[in-house]
Amino acid sequence: MLACEWRTDEQNWKVEVDADGQRKTFIANFVISCVGYYAYDKAFPTTIPGLKGFGGQVVHPQWWPEDLDYSGKRVIVIGSGATAITVVPSLAEKAGMVTMLQRSPSFVISRPTTSSLDSCLKSLLPFSLAYWLIYWKDVFLEVFSTQFLLNFPALGRKVLMGEMQKALPKDIDVNVHFNPRYNPFQQRLCMCPDEDFFKALHQDNCEIVTDTIETVTKDGILLESGRKLEADIIVTATGLYFQLFSGIAPLVDGQPIEVGSHYAWRGCMVDSVPNMGFVMGYVTTSWTPGADIMAKTLISVIKEMEKTGSTSVMPVLDEKDRSKPQKLPVSATSSYFVKAADRMPKVTDEGPWYGRVNLAKDWWAWLMGDMSSGLLYSGGQRKKDI
Question: What does the record give as cofactor (predicted)?
């Protein structure tokens, strides 16, 4: 997408895109952004001293070379987040040595990809019923575990540390490498399927190092502790760049909308921007259920437009709502969230401007809440359906 402008006189959006090098224009009554909140053309800006002087290959996971040959090579993965947790097991299958180098630890929990209960339900019940039961069983367990960790952080930390200790080899100290400074869900928890990350650490060619980089040298990384890590390849899994709407500032009658100066209505629309929504999942729990309920909410808004014969709908705040304390829409303290505060719409934690917490609350708001609170519907009878 190159540009996106709402025209009040036409009551529609003019969207310009680059389609395989060809500029095309689309006219739409309603625009929904489903591109997530990461940039695809840039990464989180991180300074690694001496990196330009490295004599080997430097790879960022967002632009992974398809022809990268790491067989038998010494690979250092810099980072401790979800990207690092994901690539380390795969690299350890063929690399000569994989070192995950982290400045600070993260919580990592394992989740099985199959369940005997799920298999039993699928074999005994019709598919649709089994799917429904499995879905809500998983939602309940996820909401329960998330709220437990958020409300009882000390006990939650103890439980997580115990689970990680059981999965780790005995020579890796959980208190050194998996004991974060933050409480559970102050930053995102990393999940690995079927303990693949922990299984990789059981291999002779995989290790984890918690230290600070002093400088990158021609053939490796020198740490502040004095240890030298040799490397043929360095993977910079150091974070992603947060942005909404693919980094394009929507225009409303020629005026750019800076999203960070506005508020999020139910986490899926921005005040002062007509007929535009965005779909995102959750930060602290599974992405897909969060995206699903946001899509349902937007569909309900569009149905309300059709019901009332409106051509536009726009979130609006009254002075009472605007005077309430602002908060970020995510409670996580990850670096890329904190540094993106000026690019995030704000919330107040009250009414339709609340910050998204969990699926149960969002489902309740969708089922029982109305589609008029905080929204201004306007325009006459449309010439065609939305």
Answer: FAD
Token digits for 113? 């990809």
Beta bridge partners of 327: 347
Angle at 176 between CA 174 and CA 182, to 5 degrees: 90
Give pLDDT tens digits for 100-133: 999 999 999 999 988 999 999 999 999 999 999 9
- Which run of H or E residues covers position 223? strand 220-223
Bridge partner residues of 209 (DSSP) = 101
Cβ neighbours of residue 338 under 8 Å, at least 6 residues apart? Answer: none
92 and 144 co-located in one domain: yes
Q: Please name which of 47, 79, 59, 53 lies closest in space to residue 209, comparing C-alpha atoms.
A: 79
Residue 155, amino acid: L
pTM of the model as a whole? 0.85
Q: CA separation (Å) from 229 to 11, 176, 217, 272, 312?
A: 60, 18, 10, 52, 59
Distance CA 53, CA 31 (A): 46
Is 35 within a domain?
A: no
Closest CA to 48 of 70, 79, 84: 79
- Per-residue DSSP letter, 42: E
Are both 285 and 337 inside the same structural domain?
Answer: yes
206: helix, strand or coil: strand
Residue type, 378: S
CB 79 within 8 A of CB 238: yes
| Contact predicate 233/75, CB 8 Å | yes
Residue type, 327: K
Extract the tokens encoding 373.
């609170």
Q: Are strands 12-19 and 3-7 parallel, antiparallel or unpaired?
A: antiparallel
Residue 68 CB partners (closer than 8 Å, separation 6+): 57, 59, 233
Token digits of residue 134: 């499995």
Pair 177, 298 in one domain: no
pLDDT at 332: 61
Q: How many domains does the chain have?
A: 2
Q: Is 128 among the domain residues?
A: yes
- Return the beta strands (E) in 312-359 as ranges: 312-315
